[in-house]
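The protein record now logged underneath.
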Amino acid sequence: VTMGQHWFLDLHVRNNEQSWVEGNLQPLVPMYWPPSLDGKLNAIFFPVPVVQEGSYLFGYGDWETPMLTSTLMCQNWCDSNCHWKTHFWSTMHIYFNSRWKTLKCAGGSGPVGRM
């Protein structure tokens, strides 16, 4: 199951590459379905390289639980070079429709069902 194709942008590197520097990552990630720029904007996603209040495993707050390890955050990319200096990420998704539980990517794997 997937929420849509995540489109990350590194603000300091071009050609769709990543520097893997947390401060270079655009702080708002659009998510499209179907997974192309021709798809509809399905959701937005805020990745924060600092643990936020309430994002611990049994936390109560506005941030999603549990916080992500850097390894889990890397599953948002299809890139074996993914690595971050930070150890944990907090995330928040905002959905623009109620179909996110039924969207599927053909051949997807991992918790985000990437292409």
Notes: The chain has one helix and five strands.
